[in-house]
Design a protein that fits this description.
The chain has 245 residues and is α/β, with parallel strands linked by helices. The chain has one domain: Rossmann fold (3-Layer(aba) Sandwich), CATH 3.40.50. The protein is 26% helix and 24% strand. It contains five helices and eleven strands. Strands 1, 2, 3, 4, 5, 6, 7, 8, 9, 10 and 11 form an eleven-stranded mixed β-sheet that branches. Strand 3 and strand 4 form a beta hairpin. Helix 2 packs across helix 5. The radius of gyration is 17 Å and the shape is globular. The two termini are 14 Å apart.
């Protein structure tokens, strides 16, 4: 049984190298996940894989049923979740194609179904979130990167915006003042829901562009140029990290 799941985002709607053995659709108390969960082997390890944006990348970040996604993975017997997320770089160390393992986050999303622990799906609970990313998983990713010879930024703060539009330069300046090193649209409520279900969760963030106001001004062009190079690094890190989880 797969104990580890990878959630793939933009640039990883499919996972080259994953030998899929079976796929399973789940029905959860919170509705349907983005896609069937694929079970198979990667680098000799049994893993589950879920395409966050659904097959054909149809779901925008604010329409993803994060609650159903995490519930389905837990139902599948998964204990640890590695979330691959494309982000915009805010910190100077995160140009396009750089990889980071964030250690903290700021949630700017609104109006998403963001909890199970509301007394409806599960009893009320104030999940502790001092360390939003599981240290054990973060260490495994950093160790995997070292072994793969992939340079990674070993920590950083992920700011999560609501999307689907990109940010304004003023919003990015504010995020920088808030301490954010990178900006994505899917990191929350995903991380918090994993915590509520007692799943270990860590993110492998791939910068695919400079955040608004910091780069060439052609964000989509940057993404197109750098995503393949960055995803190759992500796969190399996973190849070394997954067997050690
Ligand atoms: N902003 C928000 N989310 C993103 C970005 C960005 O610049 N790039 C990739 N995901």
């Amino acid at each position: 049984m797969a104990k580890v799941a990878v959630i793939g985002g933009t640039g990883m709607n499919r996972w080259p190298g994953l030998e899929i053995v079976r796929q399973q659709s789940f029905d959860t108390p919170c509705g349907a996940p983005s896609a069937p969960v694929a079970f198979g082997r990667y680098a000799g390890v049994e893993v589950a894989f879920l395409a966050r944006h659904g097959e054909g990348h149809k779901l925008p970040p604010h329409r993803i049923n994060y609650r159903a996604n995490l519930w389905a993975l837990r139902e599948a017997g998964v204990k640890s979740v590695v979330a691959v997320a494309a982000v915009g770089g805010i910190a100077a160390e995160l140009p396009p194609a750089a990889v980071a393992v964030p250690h903290d986050l700021v949630d700017y999303t609104w109006g998403r179904e963001h909890t199970y622990c509301d007394g409806v799906v599960l009893p009320l609970k104030h999940a502790e979130f001092t360390e939003p990313y599981a240290p054990r998983l973060r260490e495994a990713l950093l160790d995997g990167a070292r072994r793969a010879g992939v340079a990674v930024v070993p920590r950083g703060v992920m700011g999560v915006t609501h999307g689907p539009r990109l940010e304004t330069p003023a919003e990015i300046r504010r995020m920088r003042q808030d301490g954010c090193d990178m900006v994505g649209m899917t990191g929350m409520p995903e991380a918090a829901l994993a915590r509520e279900l007692d799943l270990d969760y860590a993110a492998l963030a791939l910068s695919v562009n400079w955040a608004a106001g910091l780069g060439s001004g052609d964000i989509h062009g940057e993404i197109e140029t750098f995503i393949a190079e960055g995803m190759a690094k992500v796969r190399a890190v996973l190849t070394e990290a997954l067997p050690r989880l």
